[in-house]
Amino acid sequence: MEQRSKPDPASASDPELAAMVAAGDGAAFEVLMRRYNQVLYRLARSIVKDDTEAEDVVQEAYLLAWRNAASFRGDAGLATWLTRIVVNEAAGRLRKTRRRADIIELVPGSVSEDDLAEDTMAEPHSGAGFAPPETAALRAEARRLIEARIDALPDSLRTVFVLRAIEDLSAQETAAALGMQEATVRSQYFRARGLLREALARDFDIGVASAFSFDGERCDRIVARVLARL
To answer: Are 161 and 150 in contact (CB under 8 A)?
Structure first.
């Protein structure tokens, strides 16, 4: 009988990759992590609202996935399985550290290692071109402002917004990942966009009102120069 050749992890499909990981293939697991690092980090970041904590959540989720890879049956997608692990790891961490007075359950129920068998188990795109330091600084400041406003969204809306708007998942994919109804995802995404738009509009109005500010030093300088020419 002809033996099938082992697929290259880099070009393997998700089911093939999951099978290789379940067989203990470390190279395949590295490919898996690089394939899903961005979406899982952003997901964790949307829940814990801290860069370092989000990295820890993703790392722990990967270790949990590695230990339970053999139980992955493929009933749903690999991304869905990993997403559920990250969501529950992040929510559990919030509960343990009591960082929220009122933690909103993002996924109905909880997933333990024993339950993982019942569930199913990208690198950042770098922009081309060169931006002057001033432009880069403005973009960085705008990004910080947007991130702060996303962080300020209610817990129940923030993760849906990140998956839909930033990761560009469909309502169906987001619903599957978070264990929600599609109608709930659509409603929460609509609300999140509205709140974010209002917050950014207020920031813009404040910025416009203070643009080209005529501070005391400028006023004094003009007066002094005019008086000096009298």
So the answer is: yes
Domain chopping of the chain, boundaries: 9-118, 133-229
What size, in residues, is the chain? Answer: 230
Of 89, 68, 59, whose CA–CA distance to 24 is shortest? 68
Residue-wise pLDDT for 9-59, tens only, equals: 888 888 888 889 999 998 899 999 999 999 899 988 988 888 888 899 999
Domain 133-229 fold is: Arc Repressor Mutant, subunit A (1.10.10)
124-153 pLDDT per residue, tens: 444 445 566 667 777 777 788 888 888 888
The answer to whether 65 and 121 are in contact (CB under 8 A) is yes
Does residue 62 contact residue 26 with C-beta atoms inside 8 Å? no
**Contact yes or no for 161/147 (Cβ under 8 A):** no
Q: How many angstroms separate the Cα of 174 from the Cα of each of 32, 65, 124?
A: 20, 20, 20
Q: Are 149 and 203 in contact (CB under 8 A)?
A: yes
Query: DSSP 3-state assignment of 80?
Result: helix
pLDDT digits (tens, 9 = 90+) for 149-159: 888 888 889 98
